Each structure stands twice: as C-alpha cells, then as structure tokens.
Amino acid sequence: MNKEWHLKHPMPQPATKEERMKWHLAHRKYCACRPIPDKLLEEMKKLGLLK
Questions:
Q1: What is the torsional sign of CA 49, 43, 27, 13?
Q2: N or C: which end of the chain has fewer CB within 10 A?
C-alpha cells in the first residue's frame, strides 16, 4: 500500500460517480492496494475509460 499517496489523495466525501472514477483510475496507477469495485469497473469499461 502506498500510504503517502493515500494521505495526499483522500476520496472526496461524499464523492460523485465521476470523482470516484477519477480517484480509482489514479489509485490504480499509483497504489492499487485494492481493486476497483466491480460495479464501477463495469461502468468505466462502458464509458471507454478502461479496456
């Protein structure tokens, strides 16, 4: 886990769907200590944000 990244980039509360997508994309790049939730992952794929 990239603790430093997490401390500098907290998930907004409450987060919009767009904020959640943006946060998870950055998290995947810089930390990836946990996967993107399945429901959000499916939507991101439909939008072409992930393959």
A1: positive
A2: C
Tokens of 46: 């439909």
pLDDT at residue 31 tops 90: yes
The pTM score is: 0.88
Burial, 48: exposed, middle or buried (Cβ in 10 Å; 0-12, 13-18, 19+)? Answer: exposed
**Helix, strand, or coil here: 1?**
coil
For residue 30, give the H/E element and its range: helix 17-30
